[in-house]
Amino acid sequence: MKSLSFGPMAHLYDETRALDSACLSQALDYLTNRFPPSAYPEVVEPGIGTGRIAIPLAERGYRLSGVDISQEMLNLLAHRL
After folding, report:
1. Each residue of 22-42: pLDDT tens digit?
2. What is the structure's pLDDT at 54?
3. Cut 0.90: pTM above it
4. CA quadruple 72, 74, 80, 81: dihedral, nearest 10
5. Closest CA to 54 of 9, 39, 34, 46
6. How would DSSP label each residue in 19-57?
7. CB of 40 within 8 A of CB of 59?
8. Structural domain boundaries of the chain?
9. Phi and psi for 7 in degrees, rounded to 5?
10. What whole-number distance in Å separates Cα of residue 29 and Cα of residue 27?
């Protein structure tokens, strides 16, 4: 079985993903209200990639752990942190 890795395009991955900031904010509001970090402090994100979802969750008080098949994506995440 072959796996799909975004490693070769890690440097432009986020630019190729349409993500409306208002929509993301509403989704994060919903998650935060439904699963508050005080009750659900730890989140695991498989395929954490560049952290475009994980970083905003961490900013809302969650402790994030994540894995990704692409070392290049994880390198970008480490740089952003």
Report:
1. 999 999 999 999 999 999 999
2. 95
3. no
4. -150
5. 46
6. --HHHHHHHHHHHHHHS-TTT--EEEEET-TT-TTHHHH
7. no
8. 41-81
9. -50, -50
10. 5
Which residue bears the tokens 């935060």? 32
Terminal Cα distance for the chain, rounded? 33
Q: Residue 74 and residue 27: Cα distance in Å, rounded? A: 24
Taken in order 29, 44, 54, 20, the sign of the CA dihedral is negative
49: CB partners within 8 A, 6+ apart: 6, 13, 68, 70, 73, 77
- Beta-bridged to residue 63, according to DSSP, are 42
The torsion defined by the Cα of 17, 19, 76 and 6, in degrees rounded to 10, comes to -30
Q: What is the Cβ-side half-sphere exposure of residue 43, based on CA atoms within 13 angstroms?
A: 22
- Are 61 and 41 contacting, i.e. CB atoms less than 8 angstroms apart? yes
Written as six digits, the tokens of 9 are 């395009």
